[in-house]
Design a protein that fits this description.
By secondary structure, the protein is an all-alpha fold. The chain has five helices and no strands. The chain is elongated and about 90 Å long. Keywords: Cell membrane, Cell projection, Cilium, Cilium biogenesis/degradation, Membrane, Transmembrane, Transmembrane helix.
């Protein structure tokens, strides 16, 4: 019974749970300060991004914990997809779009958050790969043993054909 959970991924998730409220508070505070000087479409984009990231991050972290600790492939795959598709591109947008009038503290927390996400994408990929391969091997061995139990023994075959040695 091999443990398939990833300790580095779990540590990253643990620290991410504590970092996310810090990131959220700093981002909202700086958004509040720079809101009057932003153009209307950047105001809409930033508010939408904050809502999207907040909801997605809660779901993503839950799926990561459940998928990694309980070794559940669908949950860990959902975590990986939510990290790779909405979260990482959004954080990179917040980090590299100069039209947002990025503050230095804001840039620092976005870099840390992007580092968390990048590491989690890589760690979750290798953890998923190992889990899927191990679970597929277990399934094949279970099917092999089931077929072995159903197969008639060699003595029964000789009696059925009428040949005896």
């Amino acid at each position: 019974c091999e443990i398939l959970s990833s300790l580095p991924l779990q540590m990253s998730l643990y620290f991410n749970v504590y970092f996310f409220p810090f990131w959220w508070l700093i981002t909202v505070a700086i958004l509040y300060l720079k809101y009057p000087v932003l153009s209307d479409y950047y105001k809409f984009i930033l508010v939408t991004i904050m809502i999207l990231v907040s909801l997605t991050e809660l779901i993503r972290l839950y799926l990561g914990y459940v998928g990694n600790l309980l070794e559940k492939v669908p949950e860990l795959a959902g975590f990986w997809l939510l990290t790779l598709l909405p979260q990482l591109p959004v954080i990179l947008f917040l980090l590299f779009n100069e039209g947002l009038k990025i503050h230095s503290l804001e840039r620092a927390v976005h870099i840390v958050f992007a580092a968390f996400l990048s590491f989690q994408v890589i760690a979750a990929f290798f953890t998923l790969k190992r889990m899927v391969n191990t679970l597929a091997t277990r399934f094949r061995l279970t099917e092999f043993h089931r077929l072995e139990e159903q197969r008639p023994g060699p003595g029964i075959y000789r009696l059925a054909t009428g040949s005896s040695s």
